[in-house]
Design brief:
Layout: E1 16-19, H1 23-33, E2 35-41, E3 48-53, E4 56-61, H2 67-81, E5 85-94, E6 104-112, H3 116-120, H4 132-144, E7 149-156, H5 167-173, E8 178-180, H6 183-193, E9 196-206, H7 215-220, H8 223-240
Parallel strand pairs: 1-4, 1-5, 5-9, 6-7, 7-8
Antiparallel strand pairs: 2-3, 3-4, 6-9
Helix pairs in contact: 2-6, 4-8
C-alpha cells in the first residue's frame, strides 16, 4: 500500500530500481531507455516509472538530493514495495588527476561525513560497501562496451557547499574516485533492510580543476552510465539463472 512518500501499490515497482537524484532525469531515463512505461509515483513530484528493457521489468525513480532524502525513498521501496536491488545512477565531482569530466565512476565503497550509519551501528564505524555481484557485473558491462571506468571509494558529503575547503585535497590524497551526496546512506539502508545497492556516476565537474558540465548536459549526456547500469541488471539476472 501507499506510504507517506510513494503513492503506489505492491507490484507497481520491479524488483530492481534505477535511481537518479533528479525526478526529471528519472522521466528522461524512462522515456529514453524503457518500453511500455507507466508512471507509478508522483508524490512531491518525485516521479517513478516502471517499464521494460529488453523484456525485463525495471523501475526508475528519483531520490532527491542528500542522504536523508535517498534514505527515505530507498527504505520505503525495500520494505513496502518488495524492491531487492537499487542502482543509483547519478553525477559526482572528481578530485583525482586521473578522473575527468564525463568519466564513469563505480562506487565500490562510500565514506562520508554524515553520522547516519553510526546511528544505525551503535556509534561504531560501518563500512558502507556496494553489493559485490552488482559491482562485478557493472565492471564487466563497462569492459564489454569499452567504456573506461574508475572503481573505488567515493565520498558522500552532507554539504554541497563545504566550508572546509581543504577537504578536496584530503580526498584526493586518499584516492577518492568521486564526490557525491547519497551513496553511503543508500548502502547503509540496503544493509539494514537486506537489499542490494550500487552507485554508478558520471563525473559532472572536477572540484580542483574547475571543469564542469552545464545543467542541460547533466540531464542528457549520461548514456555510457545508463547502458552500463541496464546491462548490469541483465548480467545479474543471467548469473542467477
Amino acid at each position: 500500500m501507499a506510504t507517506p512518500h510513494i503513492n503506489a501499490e505492491m507490484g507497481d515497482f520491479a524488483d530492481t530500481v534505477l535511481m537518479p537524484g533528479d525526478p526529471l532525469r528519472a522521466k528522461y531515463i524512462a522515456d529514453t531507455y524503457l518500453e511500455n512505461v507507466r508512471q507509478v509515483n508522483d508524490v512531491r513530484s518525485m516521479f517513478g516509472y516502471t517499464g521494460t528493457y529488453k523484456g525485463r521489468d525495471i523501475s526508475v525513480m528519483g531520490h532527491g538530493m542528500g542522504i536523508p532524502s535517498v534514505s527515505i525513498y530507498a527504505k520505503e521501496l525495500i520494505t513496502d514495495f518488495g524492491v531487492k536491488s537499487i542502482i543509483r545512477v547519478g553525477s559526482c565531482g572528481a578530485v583525482r588527476d586521473d578522473v575527468n569530466v564525463r568519466d564513469v565512476v563505480i562506487g565500490m565503497g562510500a565514506c562520508t561525513d554524515s553520522k547516519v550509519n553510526r546511528m544505525r551501528f551503535n556509534d561504531h564505524d560501518f563500512s558502507a560497501i556496494a553489493d559485490f555481484d552488482l559491482t562485478r557485473h557493472a565492471v564487466a558491462a563497462a569492459n564489454a562496451q569499452n567504456v573506461p571506468v574508475k572503481v573505488g571509494n567515493i565520498f558522500s558529503a552532507d554539504l554541497f557547499y563545504n566550508p572546509q575547503t581543504e577537504m578536496a585535497e584530503l580526498l584526493k590524497r586518499y584516492g577518492i574516485v568521486g564526490v557525491e551526496m547519497e551513496a553511503a546512506g543508500l548502502y547503509g539502508v540496503a544493509a539494514e533492510f537486506g537489499a542490494r545497492a550500487l552507485t554508478i556516476c558520471t563525473v559532472s565537474d572536477h572540484i580542483l580543476k574547475g571543469d564542469s558540465l552545464s545543467s542541460a548536459d547533466r540531464q542528457t549526456t549520461f548514456n555510457d552510465m545508463m547502458t552500463i547500469a541496464l546491462d548490469t541488471v541483465l548480467r545479474d539476472d543471467a548469473d542467477k539463472a
